[in-house]
Amino acid sequence: MVYDRERFAREDAVYAEHKRAVAAGEKRVLRKTSTGELHSYPADEIGFTPGGGQAQVSTWWGMAIVCSVLGLLFLGSLVMLIVTLLQGHGEWGILLPLLMGAFGVVYTFRLSRDEYLATQLRKLRGSPKPSSSGSVDINLLELGQNRGDQPGASR
Q1: CA-CA distance, 10 to 76, in Å (whole number)?
Q2: Most buried one in 49, 64, 130, 136, CB count within 10 A?
Q3: Residues 36-80: pLDDT tens digits?
């Protein structure tokens, strides 16, 4: 990372404003944007934060696809349960995967819905898109703190 005095000044200003808003009782989330700038988002502008795994979903429509796949698996499990019950075999072992599938559908649907609403609010308010990592090192943001990549700073 290259030292950028103006960028650090902007980040300090955003962090100070974020601290004032939180102290005033607002629910805010401090995140990096997709361009790397720091931004203080109102809580309703953040849908979900993708995990740190290799393959991850970061958009509402991507989560809607996951929800659809889980829904198809749920329906397939339900059909298997109904067919075995109609044949007179009491195969109740399918109930756990069936319940887990139902939970997965509801959970991913809610994530998709929340991200869609957050995306619409960000567009309406003109807020930048958050980064997909979602991590901000608060320790580096204390106002006036020397950062390790500043000229003359020891490591």
Answers
A1: 53
A2: 130
A3: 888 888 888 887 776 655 457 778 888 999 999 999 999 988 888
51 domain residue, yes or no? no
114-136 residue pLDDT tens: 989 999 999 999 888 887 765 66
Listed residue (10, 16, 15) closest to 30, CA to CA: 15
* Domain identity same for 103 and 64: yes
Question: pTM of the prediction?
Answer: 0.70
Do both 66 and 115 map to the same domain? yes
Cross-strand partners of 28:
42
Burial string for 7-26 (b: 16+ CB within 10 Å, else e) reads: ebeebbebbeebeeeeeeee
Flag whether 52 is in a domain: no
